[in-house]
Structures are given as C-alpha cells and as structure tokens.
C-alpha cells in the first residue's frame, strides 16, 4: 500500500509549524497507524532527517499516551486509540493528514507531541478520595450497589488521552473532567468530598484555559472509551448542587 | 478572557482554609455557571415564545379577536396590578434574560474561540448544522428582536403604525417583501437555535440522563418545528392572502 | 578483555534483615524493631522515587502522607501512564470472602510453590499478609472493583489456583489500581509534598561515600541534564522484558534505571528468570512493534491445535478433524489445555519448531472456539469473552467466532531484578528497589494476578515502613553539588549521550534492538541450552561493538529526541542481555520460567536441581568488559517443602 502523508512538523513549542508531505510505500494492512509512522521514521533516520515525534507507550489502547488528529478526526476514522487503528482502514493511494491535538491548554511540544499536564492538575485539584494509606476501613464495611459500581467503572475507564479536547470545537475538557467527577461522586467512598471535588476540579479546568462546553457532542463521539455525553450533564448537576450547598 | 486563574497550590488551600465564594460568584466565575445563566434565560425566553406564538395564532380568528387579545394582555393581573403593568414586568424579565443570555454568550464565545488558537488544517465536523450555527443564529435573533420591537411594539418602522391595532399592523407589515424576508430568516434561525438549544439547556442544567437523552433531542426538535411553523404561519398566510 | 564466561563466585549473601521466629510473626517483629523518624523531622528528609507505576505511585503518595519530601520521576508525560496501567486480569488477596478455604497461609503456600521454590519464605508470607490491606486501601480510594448484586466484592479464580481470590475490574484491573495510586499521588503533588517530574528519565545513580544520594536525570523535553539529591533513592522502574524487543510490555519500558544502579554496585538477581505468556496475538510481520496479550482465561474454553502435517497451508476450516493435532490434550491428558503458562508456551514453540505452526511465518497455533460455540451457543461465548474477541478482531481483522484465533507465546514479565533484602534494600545503602524492578517474591515463576499485589504491597505498606528504619539511622547531611562523585556521574551521562549522537552511522537504533531481541528470543527464550547460550554470549558483545560503530541518532540532545532516548536504552539492553545469558548458562537446572533443554525429567518436563541451585543468583558488576562476580543467597524452606511439579 502506498500513501501520501501530510504531517504537522513543528520543531519546538515556540517554533512555527507546517504540514509537510511524505510518501510512504510498502504499508501492510496489518500495521497499526503507529507502526506505519515507525516505518516512515526508520526511513527518515537513515536519510538523515529528523523523525516525526509522537507520544506512545502501551500500544494497546490503555495508557492514553498516543493521539493525533487523522484526517480531521481525533484518533482517526475508527472509534479507538491511534495505536489500535490499523492501516486496513485506509486505501492504497490515500492522502492522510496528521495533526497534533490542538488546544490552548495543550501546547505543542514538538510535531505531534502535546503537553497534557493540565489534566494532571485537574485531578490534583480534587480527583481523589482523601484516604491516607493504612486508614482504610475493611473493604466490605461499605457495600456499593451494583449499578453505582458499574457507573463508576464505566467512567473510570477514561484513559486521559485528550481526544475529547481535541475533538471539541471549543477545546473543552468537560468530558474528561466529568468522567472523573462521576466516577468518584457516585461511590459512597467519594461522598464526603462530593461538593469540594466538583467545585475544585471545575475551577481548575477553567483556570487551565480550556473552553466552555456548548454541548456540541463531538467529544463523546471521539472518545475511544465511550465515556457517554450525559456524563457532562451529570457533572453539571453535581456542580450546581455543590454551588448551592458549599458556601454554607 | 481569563477569569480567576488560581494556581494548583491555591486550589489545594482554597479547599480548606479560605472560605468559598458565594453561590452567585461561584456560578458567574465558572464556565458551567455562565452556561447555566444562558440555559435559564434561554428557557425563560422559550416559555415567552411559546405563549407568544399561541397568542399570535389568534390572528386567524380575525382582527376583532386578535386586537381584543392584545388589549387583554394589558389587563392581566388587574386589579392587583395597574393597567399594562404585567406587560412591563414581563418586559423587564425579558430584557434581563436577553441581557444575561447575550453577555454570557459573548464572554463564553470569546473564551471558547481562544481555547482553540490554531485551527485544524483538515476539518471534518460531525456536529449538526444547528449546533455549528448557534452563535450566528444568536446574532440574527438579537438583530431581529431589535427590528421586531421597532416594528410591532414601538411601531417606528411599521408601514401602518396604528397603535392599538396590531392586526392591521401585522397584516400591513407582511405585504412588504423585505419584512417577509426578515421574519422568515429570523424564524428559521429561531428553529435552528431551539433545535440545538433545548437539549443543550437540558444538558447544562443537568437534566439529561443516558435514558432521557433521546427524549430531550426529540422534544427539542418538536418544539423547534412547532414554534417555527406557528410563527411562520402568520407571514405566510398574509403572503398567500389567507389573512387580509 | 576477559570473557563473561570467566565469572567468579564471591562471598555468599545472607538476607540479614528477615527476623527470626515463626514466619507469621516476622513482619510484626520487623515493624516493631524498626527505628522511627519523628514526624516533626520528616519534612527534613527527602526521598527520590523513580517510577510512578503501582509500586512507585503508591510509595510516593504514602511517603508524602507520612511527611517526607518526595521528588518523583517518570518518563511518560503523566504519572498515570506507567506500564502498570496495562495489567488486565486481576489482583490476588487472601480475603477469603468466598469462604472457600483461602487464608494467608494458603496464598503464601501457593506463591512459594508457584515460584518453583526459588523465592524467600519470609518475604512471601509478608506479601500474603499485606494483600488483605491492599484491597481495603484500594476500595477506599474508589477503585471500582467488580461487585455482586448484593453490593459486595466479586472475585474469580486465576491461573489454576483452587480458590477464588482474584479481585478484578473487568479486564482493566491494572488501570483501575494505578488510577487509585495516581490520584493519591496527585493529591500530594497538588499539596506540594511531592515534586513531580514527568517526562524526565533517570540516567544514573549518584553514590557518595557508599550511600545512594541522588540521581542524574534528563528532561526529555528540553534535554537538560539535572541532578537531584536525597537521603534515599527508591527505584520503582518496572521490569526489563523489553530487552527482548517484542514483549507485552509498554514500548518504552526499559532497564536503564536498574542497570545503571547495577553498574554502580547494586547486585542483579536471577536475571534469567523471565516469564513467557502462552496466549498472545502472534506477530503479523517485520513491522511488529510490540505484542498484545490475550487473557489466559481463553484457555478455559478454547482448544489448541495445529495441523498434523508439516507446512499444511490450508485454511483451518478445510483441515479435517483427523488431520489436526490437539497437542496439549494429547501430551497432558490430565490438564489438557489448562497446563501452566510455561508448559503451554514451550509446547507451542515445539510444534512451531517442527514446522507445523500456522499463520504468517508459521509462528502461531490455533485456539479454537468452534466446539465451545457448538456446546454453549454463540451468546454464552460472547458473554464470557466478547470483549477479548472484539480486541482480537480489531487487531487481526479475523472473526474468532468463525475462524480459530491464532496465538503464540510472548515475553511478559521478569522475575529477576535488583537484589533486595527483607527491607527492600539493594546492596547499595540508601538504594531501595520495589515492584517488578526488584527480584521479586515470585521466585522462578510468577502466578497470575500476583504482580499487582506485590507492587502495591511494596509501595503502600512495606517500603514506607522499612525506609523509616534506614533514614532514622543515617546522619543528616546535605550533599555537596560539587562533590566529585556528582561531577563524575554527570560527565559520564553527558559523555554517553554525546557519544551516541556522534557515531552518525547507518543503522537505526530500532534495528539493533530488533536484532538483539531475535537473538535473545532464540537462545534465551522459552527453551535454553548450553550451545545456544554460548552462541548468544559470543554474538552480543559483537552486536554491541557494531552498535557503537554504526548506530545513527539524528538531531541533537538539546530538545525532545525520541531516537536518542531509545538508543540510550538499547545500550543498557545490550549489556543486560549478556548477563541474562550468563545467568541462564550457569543455572543448568530447569525451574519455573527458566527451561534448560539439558535438565528434564524422563517425561521431558522441567527438572529442578534443588541441591545444586536452591539459591538466588546475585551478580555483582565489576567493570566494563570484566566478568561479573556471582554471590549466592541460599534459600531455606521451613514451611513449604519443595516437590517436583507434574502435569501429565
Ligand atoms: C499486558 C500485561 C498484563 C499484565 N497483567 C497482570 C495481571 O493481570 N495481574 C498482575 O498481577 N500482573 C500483571 N502484569 C504484570 C504487572 O502489570 C507489572 O508487573 C506491574 O504493573 C509492574 O509495576 P511497577 O510499578 O513495578 O512498574 P511499572 O508500572 O512498569 O512502572 C515503571 C515506572 O518507572 C518509570 N521509569 C522507568 N524507567 C525510568 C527511568 N529511567 N527514569 C524515570 N522513570 C522511569 C516509568 O515511567 C513508570 O512510571 C501484567 C503485565 C503486562 C505486560
Ligand atoms: C429569542 C430568543 C432566544 C432563545 C429562546 C434562546 C434560547 C437558547 C437556549 C435554550 C440555549 C441553550 C443554553 C444552553 O446550552 O445551556 C441557547 C444558547 C445560546 N444562545 Fe440563545 N436564545 C435566544 C436568543 C439568543 C440571542 C439573542 C443570542 C445572541 C447573541 C443567543 C446566543 C446563544 C448562544 C451563543 C448559545 C450557546 C450555544 C450553544 O449552546 O451551543 N441566543 N439559546
Ligand atoms: C411572525 C411572527 C411574529 C409576530 C406576528 C409577532 C407579533 C408581535 C406583536 C404584534 C407584538 C406586539 C404585541 C403588543 O405590543 O401588543 C410583538 C411583540 C414582541 N414580540 Fe413578536 N411576533 C412574532 C415573532 C416573534 C419572535 C420570533 C420573537 C423573538 C425572538 C418575538 C419577540 C417579541 C417581543 C420580545 C415582543 C415585545 C413584547 C413587549 O415588549 O410588548 N416575536 N410581537
Ligand atoms: S473522556 Fe475519552 S477522549 Fe476524553 S480523555 Fe477520557 S478517554 Fe480520552
Ligand atoms: S464537544 Fe465540546 S462543547 Fe461540550 S459536549 Fe463535548 S465538550
Ligand atoms: S499507546 Fe497507549 S493508548 Fe495508544
């Protein structure tokens, strides 16, 4: 398979970037998208050019490190992570545009690598249960109704990849933040910090320079883990509830 | 625009030592809170429009009924309220709503645009047309409201401008091609605005659940359709000669 | 230059820190005899934690909660992405919620036996004791473990154990546990108690006056080399399975931190103990960059077979029953498809070596669900394995409901690692190793769902206790940044990076990694023999030589340069590989994951030699090109008596 790639190349955070065209040949349909880029990079190295930088680690769709916008879609045409996207979804002769996540809160580090540390700070602001090691009660002391456990799990599946931000026309982090807020707020273990958690996480989310949500819904369509759009509504509910209660 | 940019350390402290801001401050400073303002004001305007549309439809019962209805509007609440007071109270509420809605929309839109400083070279939006045109639709609606008030409330730009005779004013209006265009475009914008806005408000206010999502989408579409059709019926009827 | 084969045997080592007495009392005693640091003084102590996986994340959070100042590192952009996130199956704990006869003692017993009697009894017992607290801790953090309708925790059985003691969160247990630790860590980072350095790689250890006092690290974004000082250094940098190039480990997992520590004096224990997982998706071609694990549970219902005839290229559906070889059922009638990991892996290799493998390159065997679907119906199969089938289909584009899956063994876990005593101290005072980075409590073979348990036990409960004792006994003094040892470590690091950039050869780093991996897989993989290991030991130094002459690393070291990172890791892989082969060569017995062709029972199964090899092999580095020194730590079994495993 032969492809024309147009890849965003940007040497550093403050440098200008541009789309650069590369031809790649001999692409097998079994390759993952990242393996296809590996192939390109191997060639660039031997030709003495700088290989394309991109984040990746687990390469099995769970660490959330990888991510690029492929032909205008975060993580590409399939609903999965970039590392789990295979070349069989492209056709011989295709032109493929590859760009980094674009958001003010995710500055480009180099080429397709962006800085997503804003997510870590959102978690640090309240995405936890305060339970110092050793202070935990016996696990069965608090039964958790199965529906709550299932909802928590479904939201905890978020891999923090940032595709939601990349897909959102406002560069909003609402889906990511709501995934964490809902995960912890539906559990009895998360109840004591229910209000402060959502207020602080939303406060940090805003402080990081993410856009607001206009309920566009692109985020949930791009999310490789299927975090549902109504999670945002659930977070809004929590936020409004907390805003009413907290000052007292 | 960047409001409140606390550092992480501030946040950690804020959760403990510093008292939290009031409910209103919390709302107005956050994106979700501002969005809530939009949703609430949007719903208020929506309720007004439903009533307004139903009232407008009385036009099909003839000039007498319609004009009587208009003057009845001024008697609502009597004798507790003086003549016309209800209308003024409503106007104040509406102006506040429009103001709140527009200011929030303006601030949030600036922020949203700043959050994506570099556009994608390859753009392929999946969102519906209605969703993507909310901001322009809003601007059209704002301009329309100004025009509409000058036209039918203050009668400044109305071709007939007979106070107390709304039926005649309306009919006279829609004999003008440009008025027809203005109204039809505005009604279309309204329909699109509500098509997205209704479900959007439900999500902002936290009413959407996984099960209820579809119902809200359907309700939004029905509402958009009914309102647009209900409003459009008037100019179209005049244009086609059904009303005269 | 002396040959690696000329290694010498040095002083034996005794793990002096395990207390005497009944095995069940030892951890209590140790905790009681440990000196404590006054809570008010803890702020004055800094601890460096390298790694944010289950072990490192848990340790960093806990130490900070105790009041220490923590400086922490990971090479990923976020601590949440550590390789632990990929663990699927579950975590063991002796809770006995099922009332099925489980107990701390049984978990202890199973682990020692499962490790083929190459682990320490006192450590394993402690692990089993602490396992119970781990579940409590994680549940309180909000880890969404699977639950029953009554709201209580669900468990399942795993890896052929007879009790149901594995807690799980669908197929994402590692992710959920790691997020729990990461959240606790994030809280401490936000509170300023942990200074977190993501995208920063440790490249050397700073040892001053015999004590580990800091690290040299490289900021992967700016390329800046920095030094960080502390009163103790904890390595939680994971396993070294990636020496094999293709493994189920994350692509960037590496041995750099532990190898550099080894070069600075920390003994490396049992490097040849590597675990191979039988059910992975086979490679699809030369472009393959890593391998994906398919849960072991598939073997409960799938039947494994290959064609009877060599080179039979017919599609599986066209091969009649009579021409199929259900080899596991044939060779091990009692256990059939459910034989342990190592046995299933070797059998697959054997049939493929005979030329009967299937799929591209003949490196695969069928795992067939046709019978299961006929027996249970498609719905039932989908209910049990639906998500795995989906994942398989996504990767291979083959529908396992219609065509048998193809699977092949792959490197999965490393039991070897830095030698540590009962307190998790390495042989360098002040240097601790936790999680997969140490030669862990799993002996020669790890049981399923036990690595997560060990990582969290080390990080939440063991290290935070034992490190107190070390810190309380040290004089408190500042490190002089101009100390010659510091300058030497920095110069060595920059020198090496400069050298890598200067070679400017004609081969990519990846090509060397691939070649090394193939070599190791062939000679130090599922089955090892004298001739093969000697060949590898001859070839590795030559490859290393070639690497330093022909590698091409583009760009500069002053900014994000992923090829430089990779090349730098491969340098360590090239060195560690040699030690692995030497260790495998010297251990002429078969045990656990280490199978020597020469040491078999009459039935052809692995045969241990307890008399000769009932020890931990701890290797000491003696200099570049110099042969290492072997220190033996004898293993004593008071409670679990060694027996030979048999599955026929
Ligand atoms: C696919 C797969 C499935 C598994 N499933 C299970 C299971 O079901 N049950 C089970 O018990 N076990 C399982 N395991 C094993 C288990 O996941 C690992 O053994 C365990 O997670 C290791 O944790 P760790 O904290 O020691 O290291 P890791 O999670 O590997 O973390 C290493 C950390 O060190 C950092 N690091 C490494 N080198 C450096 C450096 N030089 N400088 C700075 N930072 C560095 C990394 O950034 C990372 O943060 C599985 C393993 C794999 C590969
Ligand atoms: C006629 C009256 C109007 C009605 C009934 C109305 C209604 C609504 C509703 C219900 C929403 C959804 C709120 C939410 O998402 O939570 C909304 C959103 C919005 N409105 Fe209006 N609105 C009106 C006029 C305007 C005007 C005059 C503007 C203009 C400037 C405007 C601009 C917007 C914008 C920008 C949004 C957000 C877009 C989004 O949610 O995607 N609207 N409107
Ligand atoms: C074709 C459709 C419409 C017709 C025929 C119509 C007619 C009228 C008339 C006759 C009045 C004056 C009532 C009175 O003063 O007694 C009026 C007022 C008003 N209309 Fe409409 N209208 C239409 C659509 C709309 C739309 C779409 C909106 C909003 C987006 C709107 C908003 C208003 C407002 C805000 C007032 C002012 C109320 C007041 O202050 O008294 N109208 N309309
Ligand atoms: S919500 Fe989905 S898209 Fe967003 S970070 Fe989480 S997994 Fe990625
Ligand atoms: S796409 Fe963006 S606007 Fe909201 S619904 Fe998703 S965050
Ligand atoms: S590399 Fe881990 S999710 Fe893609």
UniProtKB/TrEMBL annotation, chain A:
It comes from the Bacteria. The lineage of its organism: Bacteria, Bacillati, Actinomycetota, Actinomycetes, Kitasatosporales. Keywords: Iron, Iron-sulfur, Metal-binding. InterPro entries: 2Fe-2S_ferredoxin-like_sf, 2Fe2S_fd_BS, 4Fe4S_Fe-S-bd, 4Fe4S_Fe_S_CS, Beta-grasp_dom_sf, Helical_ferredxn, SDH/FRD_Iron-Sulfur, Succ_DH/fum_Rdtase_N. This is Succinate dehydrogenase/fumarate reductase iron-sulfur subunit. Pfam families: Fer2_3, Fer4_7. Belongs to the succinate dehydrogenase/fumarate reductase iron-sulfur protein family. PROSITE patterns: 2FE2S_FER_1, 4FE4S_FER_1, 4FE4S_FER_2. NCBIfam families: PRK07570.1. SUPFAM superfamilies: 2Fe-2S ferredoxin-like, alpha-helical ferredoxin. Its cofactor is [2Fe-2S] cluster; [3Fe-4S] cluster. Residues 149-179 form the 4Fe-4S ferredoxin-type domain.
Automatic annotation (TrEMBL), chain C:
It comes from the Bacteria. Keywords: Flavoprotein, Oxidoreductase. Transmembrane segments: none annotated. InterPro entries: FAD-dep_OxRdtase_2_FAD-bd (IPR003953), FAD/NAD-bd_sf (IPR036188), Fum_R/Succ_DH_flav-like_C_sf (IPR037099), Fum_Rdtase/Succ_DH_flav-like_C (IPR015939), SdhA/FrdA/AprA (IPR030664), Succ_DH/Fum_Rdt_flav_su (IPR011280), Succ_DH/fumarate_Rdtase_cat_sf (IPR027477). Residues 47-452 form the FAD-dependent oxidoreductase 2 FAD-binding domain. SUPFAM superfamilies: FAD/NAD(P)-binding domain, Succinate dehydrogenase/fumarate reductase flavoprotein C-terminal domain, Succinate dehydrogenase/fumarate reductase flavoprotein, catalytic domain. NCBIfam families: PRK07573.1, sdhA_Bsu. This is Fumarate reductase/succinate dehydrogenase flavoprotein subunit.
């Amino acid at each position: 398979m032969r492809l024309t790639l147009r890849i965003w190349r940007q040497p550093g955070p403050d440098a200008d970037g541009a789309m650069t065209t590369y031809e790649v040949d001999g692409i097998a349909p079994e390759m993952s998208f990242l393996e296809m880029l590996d192939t390109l990079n191997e060639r660039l190295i031997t030709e003495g050019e700088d290989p394309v930088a991109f984040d990746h680690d687990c390469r099995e769709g769970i660490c959330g490190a990888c991510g690029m916008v492929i032909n205008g879609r975060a993580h590409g045409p399939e609903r999965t992570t970039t590392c789990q996207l295979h070349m069989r979804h492209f056709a011989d002769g295709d032109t493929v545009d590859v760009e980094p996540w674009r958001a003010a809160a995710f500055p480009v580090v180099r080429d397709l690598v962006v800085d997503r540390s804003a997510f870590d700070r959102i978690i640090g602001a309240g995405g936890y249960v305060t339970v110092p090691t050793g202070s935990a009660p016996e696990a069965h002391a608090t039964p958790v109704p199965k529906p709550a456990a299932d909802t928590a799990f479904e939201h905890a599946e978020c891999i923090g990849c940032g595709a939601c931000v990349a897909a959102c026309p406002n560069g909003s982090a609402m889906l990511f933040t709501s995934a964490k807020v809902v995960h912890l707020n539906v559990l009895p273990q998360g109840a004591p910090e229910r209000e402060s958690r959502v207020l602080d996480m939303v406060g940090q989310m805003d402080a990081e320079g993410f856009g607001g949500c206009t309920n566009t819904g692109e985020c949930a369509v791009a999310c490789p883990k299927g975090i549902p759009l109504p999670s945002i509504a659930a977070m809004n509910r929590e936020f409004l509830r907390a805003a009413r209660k907290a000052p007292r | 625009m960047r409001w409140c940019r606390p550092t992480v350390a501030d946040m950690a402290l804020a959760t403990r030592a510093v008292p939290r801001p009031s409910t209103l401050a919390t709302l107005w400073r956050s994106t979700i809170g501002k969005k809530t303002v939009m949703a609430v004001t949007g719903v208020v305007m929506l309720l007004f429009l439903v009533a307004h549309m139903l009232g407008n439809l009385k036009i099909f019962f003839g000039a007498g009924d319609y004009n009587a209805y208009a003057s009845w509007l001024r008697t609502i609440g009597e004798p507790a309220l003086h003549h016309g007071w209800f209308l003024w109270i409503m106007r104040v509420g509406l102006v506040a709503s429009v103001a709140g809605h527009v200011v929030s929309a303006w601030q949030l839109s600036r922020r949203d645009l700043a959050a994506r400083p570099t556009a994608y070279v390859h753009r392929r939006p999946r969102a519906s047309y209605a969703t993507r045109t909310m901001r322009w639709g809003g601007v059209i609606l704002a301009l329309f409201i100004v025009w509409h008030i000058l036209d039918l409330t203050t009668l400044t730009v109305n071709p007939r401008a007979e106070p107390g005779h709304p039926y005649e004013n309306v009919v006279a209006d829609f004999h003008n091609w440009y008025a027809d265009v203005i109204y039809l475009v505005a009604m279309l914008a309204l329909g699109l605005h509500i098509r997205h806005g209704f479900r959007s408000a439900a999500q902002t206010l936290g009413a959407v659940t996984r099960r209820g999502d579809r119902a809200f989408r359907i309700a939004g579409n029905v509402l958009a359709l009914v309102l647009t059709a209900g409003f459009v019926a008037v100019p179209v009827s005049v244009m086609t000669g059904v009303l005269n | 230059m002396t040959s690696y084969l000329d290694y010498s045997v040095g002083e034996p080592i005794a793990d002096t820190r395990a207390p005497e007495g009944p095995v069940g009392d030892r951890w209590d005693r140790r905790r009681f005899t440990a000196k404590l640091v006054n809570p008010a003084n803890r702020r004055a102590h800094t601890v460096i934690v390298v790694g944010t996986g289950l072990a490192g994340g848990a340790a960093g959070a806990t130490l900070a909660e105790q009041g220490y100042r923590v400086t922490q590192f990971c090479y990923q952009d976020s601590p949440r992405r550590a390789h632990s996130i990929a663990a699927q199956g579950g975590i063991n704990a002796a809770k006995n919620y099922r009332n099925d006869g489980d107990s701390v003692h049984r978990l202890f017993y199973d682990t020692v036996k499962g490790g083929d009697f190459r682990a320490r009894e006192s450590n394993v017992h402690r692990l089993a004791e602490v396992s119970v607290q781990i579940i409590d801790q994680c549940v309180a953090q909000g880890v969404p473990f699977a639950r029953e309708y009554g709201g209580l925790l669900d468990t399942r059985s795993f890896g052929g154990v007879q009790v149901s003691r594995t807690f799980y969160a669908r197929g994402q247990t590692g992710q959920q546990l790691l997020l729990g630790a990461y959240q606790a860590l994030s809280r401490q980072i936000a509170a300023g108690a942990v200074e977190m350095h993501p995208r920063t790689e440790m490249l050397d250890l700073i040892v001053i006056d015999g004590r580990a006092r800091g690290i040299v690290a490289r900021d992967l974004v700016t390329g800046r080399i920095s030094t960080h000082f502390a009163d103790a250094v904890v390595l939680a940098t994971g396993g070294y399975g990636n020496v094999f190039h293709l493994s189920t480990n994350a692509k960037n997992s590496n041995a750099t931190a532990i190898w550099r520590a080894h070069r600075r004096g920390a003994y490396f224990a049992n490097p040849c103990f590597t675990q191979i997982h039988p059910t992975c998706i086979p490679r699809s071609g030369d472009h393959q960059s890593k391998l994906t694990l398919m849960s072991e549970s598939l073997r409960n219902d799938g039947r494994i077979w290959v064609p009877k005839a060599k080179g039979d290229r017919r599609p599986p559906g066209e091969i009649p029953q009579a021409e199929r070889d259900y080899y596991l059922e044939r060779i091990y009638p009692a256990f059939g498809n459910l034989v342990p990991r190592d046995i299933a892996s070797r059998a697959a290799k054997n049939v493929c070596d005979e030329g009967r493998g299937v799929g591209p390159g003949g490196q695969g065997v069928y795992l067939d669900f046709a019978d299961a679907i006929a027996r249970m119906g498609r719905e039932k199969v989908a209910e049990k394995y639906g998500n795995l089938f989906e994942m398989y289909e996504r990767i291979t584009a083959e529908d396992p409901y219609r065509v048998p899956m193809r699977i092949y063994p792959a490197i999965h876990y490393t039991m070897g690692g830095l030698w540590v005593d009962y307190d998790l101290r390495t042989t360098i005072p002040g240097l601790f190793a936790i999680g997969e980075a140490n030669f862990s409590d799993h002996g020669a073979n790890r049981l399923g769902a036990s690595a997560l348990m060990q990582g969290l036990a080390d990080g939440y409960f063991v290290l935070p206790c034992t490190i107190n004792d070390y810190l309380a006994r040290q004089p408190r003094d500042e490190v002089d940044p101009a100390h010659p040892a510091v300058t030497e470590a920095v110069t060595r690091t920059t020198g090496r990076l400069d050298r890598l950039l200067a070679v400017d050869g004609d081969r990519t780093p990846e090509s060397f990694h691939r070649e090394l991996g193939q070599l190791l897989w062939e000679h130090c993989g599922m089955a090892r023999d004298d001739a093969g290991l000697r060949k590898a030991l001859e070839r590795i130094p030559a490859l290393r030589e070639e690497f330093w002459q022909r590698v091409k690393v583009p760009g500069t070291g002053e900014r994000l340069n992923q090829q430089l990172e990779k090349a730098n890791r491969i340098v360590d892989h090239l060195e560690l590989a040699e030690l692995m082969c030497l260790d495998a060569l010297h251990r002429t017995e078969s045990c656990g994951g280490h199978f020597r062709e020469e040491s078999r029972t009459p039935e052809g199964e692995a045969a241990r030699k307890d008399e000769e090899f009932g020890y931990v092999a701890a290797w000491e580095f003696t200099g570049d090109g110099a042969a290492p020194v072997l220190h033996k730590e004898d293993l004593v079994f008071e409670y679990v008596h060694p027996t030979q495993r048999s599955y026929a």
